[in-house]
Amino acid sequence: MDLSTMTMLALRKLENNVKQELISREREDLNKARVQIMAIAQQAGIALKQLMLDGLQPRTGKVAVRYRNADNATEQWTGRGRQPRWVKKWVESDKSIDLLRV
């Protein structure tokens, strides 16, 4: 196939056909792999769900709030990361951060 003799329209059609074929083949390959993996898991007596979840780390919960703004109770801080502005202002005014501890 000599691409240099093809028109732009023909090249665009060819490009679209190639893209569609690639998508189709990727789906087929994925389905074949899925079937093979399921067969191997079944032969080993392993539930597919167990196989998929084993590698995942459990989600950790939220960190508890350690400090709450005395002037505005909606402003909270866990004590991790950078200090919020309200904590910095509190400390700069020579007040102990321990007074904010929950």
UniProtKB/TrEMBL annotation:
InterPro entries: H-NS_C_dom, H-NS_C_dom_sf. GO terms for molecular function: DNA binding. It holds the Pfam family Histone_HNS. Residues 56-102 form the DNA-binding protein H-NS-like C-terminal domain. This is Histidinol phosphate phosphatase. It comes from Janthinobacterium lividum.
